[in-house]
């Protein structure tokens, strides 16, 4: 095998391995973000679980959370089941609209 064939073979291998490496790196970053989120959940946080249910965290354990889905309805779920934290909505810039006046 000559040097040109060896270089070509290495380039082809790099062409297939580079996208795989980049995808794995991105997945590791996302996984670390999810783990950090799940570890930082405290009572009072509004969360959405992987099934899409919204609720408020009532209490936390090492691996579980007590989440209130509706008034009086509390479920126990795994921390791993939390998809995201719901951030409170930012107040609108104009919370107090001015009254319209009749100027004629």
How would you describe this structure to a colleague?
By secondary structure, the chain is α+β, with helices and mostly antiparallel strands. It folds into 2 domains: 1-28, no CATH class; 40-87, SH3 type barrels (Roll). 36% of the residues lie in helices and 27% in strands. The protein contains 1 helix and 5 strands. It has a 5-stranded antiparallel sheet. β1 (46-49) and β2 (54-60) form a beta hairpin. The chain starts with a helix and ends in a 19-residue tail after the last strand. The model has no long low-confidence stretch (mean pLDDT 86).
Q: Helix content range of the residues, please?
A: 25-40%
Spatial separation of the terminal alpha carbons: 94 Å
Shape: elongated
Supply the number of helical segments: 1
Helix and strand succession?
HEEEEE
Q: What is the level-2 CATH architecture name of the largest domain?
A: Roll
Q: Would you tell me the overall average pLDDT?
A: 86
Model regions low in confidence, pLDDT < 50 over at least 5 residues: none
Name the CATH class of the largest domain: Mainly Beta
| Percent range for β-strand residues | 25-35%
Number of individual domains: 2
Total strands: 5
Largest sheet: 5 strands, antiparallel
Q: CATH topology of the largest domain, what is it called?
A: SH3 type barrels
**Rg from alpha-carbon coordinates:** 25 Å
Biggest β-sheet: strands ordered side by side in the sheet: 4-3-2-1-5
Structural class, by secondary structure, is: alpha+beta
């Amino acid at each position: 095998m000559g040097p040109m064939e060896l270089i070509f073979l290495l380039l082809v291998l790099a062409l297939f391995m580079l996208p795989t490496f980049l995808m794995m790196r991105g997945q590791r970053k996302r996984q670390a973000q999810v783990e950090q989120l799940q570890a930082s959940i405290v009572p009072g946080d509004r969360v959405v679980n992987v099934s899409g249910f919204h609720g408020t965290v009532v209490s936390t354990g090492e691996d579980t959370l007590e989440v209130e889905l509706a008034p009086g309805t509390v479920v126990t779920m795994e921390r791993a089941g939390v998809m995201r934290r719901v951030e409170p909505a930012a107040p609108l810039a104009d919370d107090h609209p001015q009254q319209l006046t009749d100027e004629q």
